[in-house]
Amino acid sequence: MAKRRLDLAKVLIVLEVQTSFTVAGLSFFPVEFEGSPWDIGFKRGRLFRDILASIREMYLPQYVGEKMLEHKRLTERTVKDMENLFPELVEELKGVAAGSGLDEEDIFMINAWWENPVWPSRFPPNTGCSAVAFTESSLGPIMGQTLDIGRNPYWVMVHVKPRGGYSFFGTLRADMLGGARCINEKGLSMGGGTVSVKDRGDGLPRPVVFRALMERCATVDEAIEFLREMKVSVKVGTNLLLLDASGNAAVVEKSPTKMAVRWQEDDGICATNHFLTEEMKHLNAGSAEMIERYSQPRIERLKLFLREGDREKPITALKRVLRSHGLGGLCYHGDEWPWPTTTQLANILLSREREMYVSLPMGPPCMGHFIRYRPFSP
Asked: 61-75, pLDDT tens digit by residue?
């Protein structure tokens, strides 16, 4: 009998260990990169080499015929512009190629993918995203946001410490130099969503600009001036919500050729997937159905949240709205109604505290747990 009890205890211990590893495998954790641009790139390439190889195999074969020629031309132009403006980021991408064992051309083409996206049938173009911020709360300025990009397997969490720039922490796809879900050591937080637009331009890939912004800017005002000088994107618009440690906040509505700024009102601000300013809304190219069923109802939900949300318990309030469902909800499961997209994860960023909460495991945040990260704490 004693032996049977011992054997049963062993089985329970094994099951407990196996279960803990299984759950951890569904989540992801921050990876730190520090050093010269090439060193950062080499480490990124080495650690993410299998993910990067899968990204290449998943996306680059979608470019065929004239589409491939077009993308090669875009890639060549992008590299030249980066060499002029941000040569350190070109060096980092070369390090990624060396660390991953992939061709530099492939790495540069993946970098340019964000401005000329092609989607495999397994990952339809269902990008969206929402962001909302309190400029004042019991925990200081705070932002919540969702990533509606489908069940994408390539997302990672990074803490980048560049030489000569501000360090930043965020969630992004493994190939991205920077992402729109980041906070830097000065407390500047960034969120937002993509916008379908009518105009076309010759700007840099959005991840390149987001990376440079996080390294160079400490406040919303600095970020806005930086963006005014940048040509961003070729055919994709952005609603970029910016929040700093002082409580200043704005949404930069940026298309390939135009830009406008919406400032906070009543201690808050929000953004989804269409432009709202008079200067920019004529550039919206999203279908009426998309705006009426998907983007506008979320704006209305978030405006109500800004009026009624509990600023004394902002974490609880933000979790609730980030997990909301139905028309105007922020948590999507791939259902046809109200809109066929899937929420990959949600973030909560605390600008004064320099902290981030991330919903894990990846998937709709209503099914996950928010884990607190303090990357800038001693």
From this structure: 999 999 999 999 999
Residue in the structure block whose two tokens are 């990357």: 375
For the entire predicted model, the pTM comes to 0.91
Same domain, 64 and 193: no
Looking at this protein, which amino acid is placed at residue 88? E
Dig out the tokens for 199 from the structure: 């105009």
Rounded to a whole number of angstroms, the distance between the first and last alpha carbons of the chain is 52
Range of the domain at 362: 130-373
If you average pLDDT over every residue of the chain, what do you get? Answer: 91
Distance CA 44, CA 166 (A): 18
134 and 109 belong to one structural domain: no
**Distances in whole angstroms, Cα of residue 269 to Cα of each of 221, 272, 280, 357, 373:** 16, 11, 17, 19, 24
Residue 6 falls inside a structural domain = no
Q: Please identify, among 84, 113, 142, the residue that sits at the C-terminal boundary of a domain.
A: 113
Q: Name residues whose C-beta falls within 8 Å of residue 72's C-beta, 6 or more positions apart in sequence.
A: 109
259 assigned to some structural domain: yes
For residues 173 and 51, the answer to whether their CB atoms sit within 8 Å is no
